[in-house]
Structures are given as structure tokens and as C-alpha cells.
Amino acid sequence: MSGAEPISIACIDLAGTTVADGGTVETAFAEAIAALGIVSGTAAHDRAMARVRESRGGSKIEIFRSLFDEPRAQAAHLAFERSYDQLVDRHGLRPVPGAERALERIRGAGVRVCLLTGFGRRTQARVLDALGWWDRVDLTLCPEDAGRGRPWPDLVLTAALRLGADDVRHIAVCGDTANDMLTGRRSGASVVAGVLTGAHDRDRLLAAGATHVLPSVADLPDLVLKDAPVADHR
To answer: In the predicted model, what is the mean pLDDT of the chain?
Structure first.
């Protein structure tokens, strides 16, 4: 990348970025909140779901902790994982179009790939099992692996340590939420690319610090594997 740092590690989000969501995550949140007695159609439910939408991309348990005390947050998180499992059983999971090819192109060029998520480890494993992606990437991380989830920089910095980055500017971060963008900027990554296949729109991604906004992760290889000035990708 002329005039920019060469990318050696790509930290890429799961749901909404490489995995088509289709409302599955939000439905699981709504069902988890209802399981704690906050039912749809009430003002309390509307407030809780507004908080969920505002916090998309963050650690799921931390989102529940922002709504409930610790015992109820743990119960809600368990209900979320069960609901998500059931939704996957009923509807399956599929990659965002072009995501698998993008992972192949990036790794084929010698760039190491880490998949990041706000899911707990159990749900992360369920997603990777369902898609058969364990051998498609070099590393997978969830908040439990890093200490804190998004919007903190810990996930990206943990990837940098585990994959042996010599400079955080050699990292690209890609995701669909404002929290993904904040994580990337706070970690020092030189490329922080938002995609329009998930939770947040272009304006929200740019406001959170995106250096680029792409139609989807399918466009990420063209950004990180060749010259691509920032202004040309907004």
C-alpha cells in the first residue's frame, strides 16, 4: 500500500460482516430479555432493545450487564446463547456473499486472518462449527480471550500479540458496527474498514472512526492487498 503501512494481519468480525445475520442476533437478544420478564410491547422492552442496538458489536455479556445486575445478566446471557442455538437449528447460518473467497484471497497473499466476535466462546464455536471455518483462519478471539470486548482495543491487541505483529499499523480491522470501528481506531490499526452488510450505516461507521466504508467484506482484499488511498473507499 503506497504511502501507507503494509497489512500483515486482518482482524475481521463475524456476525454481520462475514456471517449473514438476517436479524438472528437481535431476535436472540429480544428473546433473552423477554425470558427475564421484560416482554415485547412494553416501554421497558423498547428501552432495553434500544440499548442493544446502540451497543451492537460489543461483548454480549457486557450488554446484559448494562441492563441487569450480575445474576440476571448471567441468566440473560445464557438465555441468549440458547435462543441463538435454536435459531441456528431452525434457519442455519450462511456466509455473507463473497466472504469465504475474501478470506481465501487475504490468507493466500500471506496476510494472517483473525476472526473477532462479541459472542461468548460457546456461541463463537457454534458459528465456526456450523460454517466449517476453523481451518479457514489463523486465529479466532472472543472477549473471554482478551479480557475486554469491543469497543476496547483488547481483541485487536491480543491478535497482534498472538500472531506476532511487529507494528499495530500493519493491522487492518473490518466490521459492521460502530464498536468495531472504535476498537480498530483505539488499537492503532491503520485500516479500519466498515461494511454495509450489518448493523450500522455509513454515517454511523464514519462517525465512529472508519477509515474506509465498503459495500461488504468481499471488497476487503482489494483494499488491503494493493494501493488504496483512504479517500477512494469512502
So the answer is: 89
